[in-house]
């Protein structure tokens, strides 16, 4: 009900740019360019957790980008899912790279976008699952550009985790360790597919590291092999861009 009401009120109430407050537009051209107007880059947190997959981000988490992400996630500005999806799609393309580079059997299949799960209490409080919504928008954007892509929300939390906002890098790793699992088995992943974990934001990399562990463990148990895993996010901390060591 809350999600429906948010969509209706977005149509009838005056809007302002979520990034800068410019009137009569949910996202102005300047803020849109800040969000998805530059080439995505590989990002690395400091310290970089062991097991973190290669991560690409569309933009630094600052200023207009930060405001847009928070408006979508916390204030229910659901119309921003489309431009956020465009940004995430560009990061997914960069993360996937040349399909042949994934190795044998991973060149012709679809791109599978695996969103990191949100805590149930957060979804209830916000009225929507922001990462899942952005992942679906990104998959749609990729399909419109000719790439076969699907959002597959197969990860789930298998135990409660603490709020990460007040935790340091090491504490976040401990908080997330063993917290995720693949809940739908391994049949969702075709042999020639490419798997890209997706999230709205990377800070320390703890959540992406745990998600990568969970999907690798699911494959090792079900198929006896470990898939290659990449990751893409809408935004990452500016410092993770500055120390990029490509």
From TrEMBL:
InterPro entries: ComF/GntX_DNA_util-trans, PRTase-like. It comes from the Bacteria. Transmembrane segments: none annotated. PANTHER family: DNA UTILIZATION PROTEIN YHGH. This is ComF family protein. The lineage of its organism: Bacteria, Bacillati, Actinomycetota, Actinomycetes, Kitasatosporales.
């Amino acid at each position: 009900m809350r999600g429906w009401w948010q969509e209706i009120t977005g149509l009838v109430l005056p809007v302002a740019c979520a990034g800068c407050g410019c009137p009569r537009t949910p996202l102005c051209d300047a803020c849109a360019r800040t969000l998805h107007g530059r080439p995505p880059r590989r990002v690395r947190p400091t310290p970089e957790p062991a097991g973190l997959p290669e991560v690409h981000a569309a933009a630094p988490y600052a200023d207009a980008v930060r405001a847009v992400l928070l408006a979508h996630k916390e204030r229910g500005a659901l119309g921003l899912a489309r431009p956020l999806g465009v940004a995430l799609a560009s990061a997914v393309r960069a993360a996937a790279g040349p399909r042949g580079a994934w190795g044998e059997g991973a060149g012709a299949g679809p791109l599978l976008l695996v969103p990191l799960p949100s805590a149930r209490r957060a979804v209830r409080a916000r009225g929507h699952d922001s990462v899942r919504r952005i992942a679906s928008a990104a998959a749609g954007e990729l399909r419109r550009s000719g790439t076969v892509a699907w959002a597959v929300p197969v990860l789930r939390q298998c135990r409660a985790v603490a709020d990460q906002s007040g935790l340091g890098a090491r504490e976040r790793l401990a908080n997330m360790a063993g917290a995720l699992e693949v809940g739908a088995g391994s049949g969702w992943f075709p042999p020639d597919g490419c798997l890209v974990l997706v999230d709205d934001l990377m800070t320390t990399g703890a959540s992406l590291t745990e998600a990568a562990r969970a999907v690798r463990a699911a494959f090792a148990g079900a198929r006896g092999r470990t898939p290659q895993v990449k990751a893409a996010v809408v935004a990452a901390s500016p410092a993770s861009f500055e120390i990029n060591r490509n």
